[in-house]
Structure formats: structure tokens, C-alpha cells
TrEMBL record:
It is a multi-pass membrane protein. GO terms for molecular function: G protein-coupled receptor activity; olfactory receptor activity. This is Olfactory receptor. Belongs to the G-protein coupled receptor 1 family. It is found in: Cell membrane; Membrane. Keywords: Cell membrane, G-protein coupled receptor, Membrane, Olfaction, Receptor, Sensory transduction, Transducer, Transmembrane, Transmembrane helix. It comes from Erinaceus europaeus (Western European hedgehog).
Length: 314
């Protein structure tokens, strides 16, 4: 798309922003993000290595956990180049097409995480409500099919986004409000008719987060009903304890999303730094927390970690 002088409406590069209003302390922020990435990447790689290595973890629950760890690695590596470039090397420019690619992968992995959490809630539902058929319902083939289905759903629903953005002119500058590219951020500097982008964006959010969260709540309502029907208090607690890791992972993912939505809707005059920090929490905290949650809350994961350490010390 060209203007009257024959120059492109899209800028060659977009300028990324660190944290608005923070003129000092960039070094500490860079160190903080480096620590987050180190914990996230090391933790998720460790989970994957444990599940592959330990035959005791070759079960549906841990296959889904491997999907979650692999997806969290995708989230981390999608944001890592521009975040480290912004905070560590003070390089704040990204090519327009590269920005669209990053936007696509960030949103795709985010929506995939929602689908994986839904699959994990189904795993817990079958394990508690129909334990006798657990192995026959969640076969390796069905788990693989579910994983590929989540990937296909996220990819196909997000695929139009770069092309919908590409068609728009950009006449409100080229400065984005984050250290990475997000669709809502690009819409703030785009001109022309953005209604299609906004409507399709709302549809995708409802189609993914809305439906997934509804079915997660439904599965836990059925799980709670089944648990309350157990006569033994000890058995009830044991059954609920198998769900605690997944509940914590769901909260770590959905609470920041809800908080971001509430701020955008009811606190529109919030300082830009608040919006940026909440978006950072939404993208960086779940990949960091998930390995920690499952390492602390899951006995088999703890046992596998201790087994690896004991072998390394011999």
C-alpha cells in the first residue's frame, strides 16, 4: 500500500519501548528479565528432560505437562530477542515484518497454553471421575491427537492476524508501548478501518479463552461433585491434591489475563507503566511459575529431580 508520493504506509522499522517513565535503573530491569528467562528456560527444559528420561513419568498427565513446558519455551523464545535487545543492548528497533512474525508467535503460543490447560483439566476429570477407564480413554494416540488439535486450532485462528495488520496504513507514528510486538499495541498506531481487526480479535479471544475457561470451570465442577461423593475424608483430600498443581497453573495463567482486561476496561487513565507491567506479568510469569509449581506440588516430579541429583553426586 502506497501513499500519494509512492512511499509505503508501513514503516520500515518499529520502535520498541522498555518501561515508560523509567529513565534510570534499566540495568536492574535487564538483570531481572535475564533471571526470569533463565528460570523459565532451565525449568521447562528440566521438566521435558525428566519426562523423557524417567519411565515412571510416561503417563498422560506428564505428557500434557511436557506440552505445557514446550509451549512455555515457545513463549519465552518468542519474546527473548527483542526484550534482551531493548533492555540489555538498548537496541529498540525491529523490522515491520519481523514484528508481525513475533506478534503471530506470541499470540499463538498464548492461545495454545489455554488449550493445553483445558486438556490437562480433562485429564484430571477422567482420572478422578472415571479412574477405571483412565488408561483406555487417554491413550497415547488420543493425547497426540489432542496436542495436534490444539496446535491446529491456535495456528489457524491466528494465521489471518499478520495479513489483517499488513493491509493497514500506519500514520500515528512507529513507537510501540512494549519491548515486543502485540496486536493491540499495533492497533494503537494504525490508521484506516481497524474494525475488522478489532472484531476478529474479540472473536478469537472469546473462541479461545472464553470457551476454554468455561470448560475448565465445568470440569472442576464435575470433579468437585465426584470428590464430595467420596466417603473417606482422607481419600477426598488425596483426590483434590492431585489437582492442585493444575489449579495453580490455571490461576497463574488466567488471573493476569483477567487483571489486564479489567485495567483496560475500568482504569483507562492508568499510567502506561501499569499496562506494560501487567502485560509483562501475563507473558513472563506463567512460563517461570509452571515448572516451579509442578516441581513443588507433584511428588513424582520431585522424586525424579532427587533421583537425577543423587546419580550426579555418585
Amino acid at each position: 500500500m502506497l501513499d500519494l508520493n509512492g512511499t509505503p504506509f508501513q514503516p520500515a522499522t518499529l520502535q520498541l519501548t522498555g518501561i515508560p517513565g523509567m529513565q534510570t535503573g534499566q540495568g536492574w530491569v535487564a538483570l531481572f528479565f535475564c533471571i526470569l528467562y533463565l528460570i523459565s528456560i532451565t525449568g521447562n527444559l528440566s521438566i521435558l528432560a525428566l519426562v523423557i528420561r524417567e519411565s515412571a513419568l510416561h503417563q498422560p498427565m506428564y505428557y500434557f505437562l511436557s506440552m505445557l513446558s514446550l509451549n512455555d519455551l515457545g513463549v519465552s523464545f518468542s519474546t527473548l530477542p527483542t526484550v534482551l535487545g531493548t533492555f540489555c543492548f538498548n537496541y529498540r528497533h525491529v523490522g515491520f515484518d519481523a514484528c508481525l512474525v513475533q506478534m503471530f508467535f506470541i499470540h499463538t503460543f498464548s492461545f495454545m497454553e489455554s488449550g493445553i490447560l483445558l486438556a490437562m483439566s480433562f485429564d484430571r476429570f477422567v482420572a478422578i471421575c472415571d479412574p477405571l477407564h483412565y488408561a483406555t480413554v487417554l491413550t497415547n494416540r488420543r493425547i497426540l491427537t489432542m496436542g495436534l488439535g490444539i496446535l491446529a486450532k491456535s495456528f489457524t485462528t491466528l494465521f489471518p492476524f499478520p495479513f489483517l495488520v499488513k493491509r493497514l496504513p500506519f500514520c500515528k507514528g512507529n513507537v510501540l508501548h512494549h519491548s515486543y510486538c502485540l496486536h493491540p499495541d499495533l492497533m494503537k498506531v494504525a490508521c484506516g478501518d481497524v474494525h475488522v481487526n478489532n472484531i476478529y480479535g474479540l472473536f478469537v479471544v472469546i473462541f479461545t479463552y472464553g470457551i476454554d475457561s468455561t470448560f475448565i470451570l465445568l470440569s472442576y465442577a464435575l470433579i468437585l461433585r465426584a470428590v464430595l461423593a467420596i466417603a473417606s475424608r482422607e481419600q477426598r483430600l488425596k483426590a483434590l491434591n492431585t489437582c492442585m498443581s493444575h489449579i495453580c497453573a490455571v490461576l497463574a495463567f488466567y488471573v493476569p489475563i483477567i487483571a489486564v482486561s479489567m485495567i483496560h476496561r475500568f482504569w483507562k487513565r492508568a499510567p502506561p507503566a501499569v499496562h506494560v507491567m501487567m502485560s509483562n506479568v501475563y507473558l513472563f510469569v506463567p512460563p517461570m511459575l509452571n515448572p516451579i509449581i509442578y516441581s513443588v506440588k507433584t511428588k513424582e516430579i520431585r522424586r525424579g529431580i532427587l533421583k537425577v541429583f543423587s546419580k550426579s553426586q555418585r
